[in-house]
Amino acid sequence: MQTEALKIVAVSAGLSQPSSTRLLADRLAAAARERLATDQDRPVEIRVIELRDLAVDIANHLVTGFPPQALDDAIDAVAAADGLIAVSPVFTASYSGLFKSFFDLIDHTALTGKPVLIAATGGTARHSLVLEHAMRPLFTYLRATVVPTSVYAASEDWGSSGDEYTEGLPSRIRRAGGELARMISGGRAASGASRALGLDDEVVPFEQQLADLRLD
Known about the structure:
- The protein has a single domain, classed as Flavodoxin domain (Rossmann fold), CATH 3.40.50.360.
- It is 46% helix and 18% strand.
- It has helices at 20-39, 55-64, 69-80, 97-104, 130-141, 169-197, 206-213, and strands at residues 6-12, 44-50, 83-91, 94-95, 115-122, 145-146, 151-154.
- The chain is globular, with a radius of gyration of 19 Å.
- The chain starts with 5 loop residues before the first strand and ends with a helix.
């Protein structure tokens, strides 16, 4: 019996071609796949979605409410992924408008519990906080499970080996990719255990838990 492949989807909001944003997305996906290949004996499928190719479709969908086929396929791929990598260039101290517009089209429940690795690219390191003040809150709002290590790549990071205080970019990529891989593996195991034990039907509402704690 053929083993079902794990699906990793990387969303790149880079505008140029070639793009450092796409390059970072590719390297993060490769790091996650390498770790999954070590930890699990199952195939891994990687799909990269280039938002620059969907920009007109995204704008039309926002206006009309009807996604063209290519955009609909991309949205479905994100929803069906076992793990998501989201990479945006920095514009005016935040993620790009194209990046935000795409995720505005994702159903608000589609990313619930999904492992997400966030990353960004920019000209200088002073924009690196965009990961924590903009991107992490966005995916937390969408109820995704964001991996602890986020990756920011400034222009000087490419080809840099780092120094005694800061890890080089390749090391950060490997660590973040490994964290995503572990979350994907753990999420699959936890999901299977929950279904086997019927735990999905035993969730007690928070209000009831509080009521049970009240003294008569």
